[in-house]
Amino acid sequence: MTATTPPLYAIGTPGQPWADTEISLWRSQQQIKRSYRELVLQPLFALLQQPEISAQAELIQYGTLDYQQFGLGQYPLYAVRSKDWQAEKPLALVTGGVHGYETSGVLGALDFIGGHFTQYADKDLNLLVLPCISPWGFETINRWNPHAVDPNRSFNAAGRESGLAQEAAAVMQLLQPSVAKVLVHVDLHETTDSDNSEFRPAKAARDGTVNTNWNIPDGFYLVDDLDNPQPAFQRAIIEAVGKVTQIAPADDDGCLIGEVLQQFGVIHYPKKSLGLCGGLTAAKFVTTTEVYPDSPNATPAQCNLAQVTTVVTALEFALATMV
Known about the structure:
GO terms for molecular function: hydrolase activity, acting on ester bonds; metallocarboxypeptidase activity; zinc ion binding. By secondary structure, the chain is of the alpha/beta class. The chain has a single domain (3-322), classed as Aminopeptidase, CATH 3.40.630. The protein contains 11 helices and 12 strands. A hairpin with a 2-residue loop joins strand 9 and strand 10. Helix 2 packs parallel to helix 4 and helix 4 (103-121) runs parallel beside helix 11 (300-322). The longest helix has 23 residues, at 300-322.
C-alpha cells in the first residue's frame, strides 16, 4: 500500500475547519528551535564581506515580517542580487526557505552564493537569490507562518490580498518590476518524514478534511510545471544531481507523493493555480527541488550539494539556450 490514514490531529474537531481559537492554540505550541540570525543572517553577511563576492553581489533588504501582534517580533528579509544589475537582461531567480523547515533549501542557497554566485554574475543574466523567505518557519521548523497559512500556497493575488502571507507578498513586491524578465527560477525544497507525521495531519485538521499520507520518496526528485513542462531541462538536472545523491524511485503505483511520474525523478504540479512559489513568474525554465534529508542514503552535505547542483545546472541550461 502507498497510502495510510494517520491518527487524528490533537487540535480541532474532526470535520470542522479551525477558527481563531484553534489557530491561536496551534501557534502557542510552536517553539523556537534554532536561530535565523545565527544560522542564516550572520553567514549571509559574512559572505557579502568577502571581497570577491562583494565585487559582484549586493545585499538588499526587501522587507520585514512583523509578527509583534503575536509577541513574536520582527524578521528582516534579505536577498542577494547582481551588483551590475542591467534591466534589459534576463533574470535568474533562486528561492529558498519558502517552507522554513526545509533546511537544505536555505543552506543550499547560501552555499550557492558562497561558491558560485561570482561565476555567473558576469554572464548574460541578472542573478537574484532569496535564501530564506520564511524565517519564522525556519526558527520553529515549520511549514506554515504564524497565521497557520502556507506561504507556498500564497503566491497569487488571493495570497497578497488576504494579508496573511507576508512572506509571499514581500517576494511578489520585490519582483514586480522585473517579473517579466525571469528566464529561469529554481525553488529549493525538501520532502521530510515530518510531512507525514506532522504537517499533512495538521493541514487536514486545519481544513476540516480527512488526510491520507503517501510514502515519502527515498531520494531527490523534481516538480515540473504542469502548464509549462520542460522535460529536457528537468532531465538535465536529474542527471547532474544523480551524481551527487540518490534519485527517488517511483512507488509501486508509479507515483511520487501520489503524483504520476512524468519521467525518472520528475512529477508535475499546476504551479500557478496552486499559488506555488514556482508559479510566481512566467519563466520558461522552472523547477522545484525536493530533497529527502531523512534518508539513510543521504547526508546533510549531500542534500545541500544537491540543491547547489540543481541551481548550477539550471543556469547552465538556460544560458545555453541564449547562445
